Amino acid sequence: MSLKDQIAGDLDLFFDLDEMAEPHTLTIGGTEREISAIVDGDGGQRNSLKAPGGAYDGDLLFYAKTADLSGAVQNALIQWDGVPYRVGPVVEEDGISQVTLTAGQGGF
């Protein structure tokens, strides 16, 4: 078994609803799905949602399995638990995506 295979198996542990993750409803392109996600509510992380120089960069940062997020690409319009957001930066690595959402201004 390769290291990549071992890491892929470990993702289920991180995104287990009884361990670290929480259930959230994600609507992309009219398709609603339930995903397991880890919302980063750490105060230090909230500060990193501001780009260097204090420019605003986002409202919500979460982690999810990349496979659960098909269609959640930068600048896409989505709904997170029924609230409209625009997808900001998406960083993918080893099957995990870090997604920054910015509040939808004026609706869809």
What does this structure look like?
With 108 residues, this protein is an alpha+beta fold. It has helices at residues 3-14, 43-47, and strands at residues 22-28, 31-39, 60-65, 77-80, 83-93, 96-103. It has one domain: Beta Barrel (Thrombin, subunit H). The chain is 16% helix and 42% strand. It has a 6-stranded antiparallel beta barrel. A hairpin with a 2-residue loop joins strand 4 and strand 5 (83-93).
Main features:
single chain; 108 residues; alpha+beta; Thrombin, subunit H; six-stranded antiparallel β-barrel
| Backbone CA Rg | 14 Å
| Number of extended strands | 6
As for the number of domains, it is 1
Structural class: alpha+beta
Q: Kindly, what is the distance between the CA atoms of the first and last residues, rounded to a whole number of angstroms? A: 46 Å
The side-by-side strand order for the widest beta sheet comes to: 1-2-3-6-5-4
Number of helices: 2
Overall mean confidence score, pLDDT? 81
Q: For the report, how would you describe the main beta sheet?
A: 6 strands, antiparallel, barrel
